[in-house]
From TrEMBL:
This is DUF1501 domain-containing protein. It comes from Chryseobacterium oryzae. Pfam families: DUF1501. It comes from the Bacteria. InterPro entries: DUF1501.
């Protein structure tokens, strides 16, 4: 069967929604689902460079209020005598008080890059700033743990396109925005006919697209079936992130084999009128996380769930002339779980007296965080996946 240009484009549109490993061409049996008590990781990406200083606030630091005389957060929710949290994250304050949230400040990497694209690549690939990798840290987890991955839904991203973080050398995660829509698209007679009647093709790209199409068709039904097998009674916000978390919750409560979920929200690129934009995004995050945690608790799953957040960089200490902040360096990460071993603030607030040309100087390497999560939460060989041998943290 010869492929025409219009066929190529249509196949590409469906194939790009999943970017699956092109080896699963036959119908699959889905055995070996996760044990209900097996640990699961949810990664929430704050895209665009969230301003960490207006998230976890140094409420007694005169430098903070002086350098941000118009955008400093004046009504933060007090965590301790020195520290507050943005009032739009009121539920995070509740989690902090109940010992179900940890905060690591000043996370970054040596020789930071202030480009959104490059810094995000560094965070997603877990590379050095002078190193370029075409695989992600979760993708390499899939490669390393492939003997456990009997089917390619071990990691899922709720998005239209697969992020670098979830691309391995031999295994890739599955990306979709809505399980039902993915299933409906995969069942269109056009796509099934194209796949059922195609022959081997000499063109490597065309062959890859056909193989990926077959994988999508074979797995879309499985994901959709699991997404609706256990309906959630929890009331989720009618927001993008609220809907994404509701999808993840439904899958977690099913017997799907997925161990890692990847979500994102943004943009936090707040060069202008920062407080209004950040507040709106935080309110969306706050509501979605509150519903998700309540759902997990009601179903006895919260102790085995770890929700981790990150952003590709923070912002500069001083505000700019547009009541915003420009690209900076180090930032904080949140960890939410019923299974935390160490709660609250895991380290000191950023040192605002010692800066590098107006930027924070990182003290915690994000790769050490990843190594900790891989080894202690996902029970994976972090040294093989990251090449990291410089110790781990003890919060999980």
């Amino acid at each position: 069967m010869l492929i025409k240009r219009r066929d190529f484009l249509k196949i590409s549109s469906l194939a790009s929604a999943s970017l699956l490993l092109p080896g699963f061409l036959k119908s699959m049996t889905f055995e070996g689902a996760l044990n209900p008590t097996q640990k699961k990781l949810i990664v929430l990406q704050f895209t665009g460079g969230n301003d960490g200083l207006n998230t976890i606030i140094p409420i007694k630091n005169d430098i903070y209020f002086r350098e941000r005389n118009k955008i400093a957060i004046q009504d933060s929710l007090k965590l301790n005598d020195e520290t507050g949290i943005n009032p739009a994250l009121s539920y995070f304050k509740n989690l902090y008080d109940s010992g179900e949230l940890s905060v690591m400040n000043n996370v970054g990497y040596p020789n930071p890059d202030k480009s959104h694209f490059r810094s995000m690549d560094i965070w997603q690939s877990a590379s050095r700033s002078d190193e370029y990798l075409d695989t992600g840290w979760i993708g390499r987890f899939l490669d390393e743990e492939c003997y456990r991955c009997q089917h390619p839904t071990q990691a899922l991203e709720v998005d239209d396109m697969l992020s670098l973080a979830l691309k391995g050398e031999n295994n890739k995660a599955f990306a979709f925005k809505d399980p039902k829509k993915l299933y409906q698209t995969s069942q269109e007679k056009y796509f099934k006919s194209i796949y059922d009647h195609h022959h081997s093709h000499d063109d490597e790209t065309v062959s890859y697209l056909y193989q990926t199409l077959g994988s999508t068709i074979n797995n879309a039904d499985y994901i959709f079936d699991k997404s609706k097998s256990v309906k959630t009674a929890e009331d989720y916000p009618n927001t993008k992130l609220g809907k994404d978390f509701k999808t993840v919750a439904s899958l977690i409560k099913s017997d799907i084999n997925t161990q890692v979920y990847y979500l994102s929200i943004g943009s936090f690129d707040t060069h202008v009128n920062q407080n209004e934009r950040q507040q709106k995004l935080f309110e969306e995050i706050n509501g979605a996380v509150e519903s998700f945690v309540a759902d997990m608790k009601k179903n006895g799953l919260f102790d085995d769930i770890l929700l981790m957040t990150f952003s590709e960089f923070g912002r500069r200490v001083a505000q700019n002339a547009s009541n915003g902040t420009d690209h900076g360096t180090a930032n904080q990460m949140f960890f939410i779980s019923g299974g935390l071993k160490k709660k609250g603030l895991l380290n000191d607030l950023p040192n605002l007296e010692k800066l590098n040309d107006g930027d924070l100087i990182y003290t915690e390497d994000f790769r050490k965080v990843y190594a900790t999560v891989l080894k202690k939460w996902l029970n994976a060989d972090s040294s093989k996946i990251l090449g990291w041998k410089n110790g781990m943290y003890d919060f999980i």
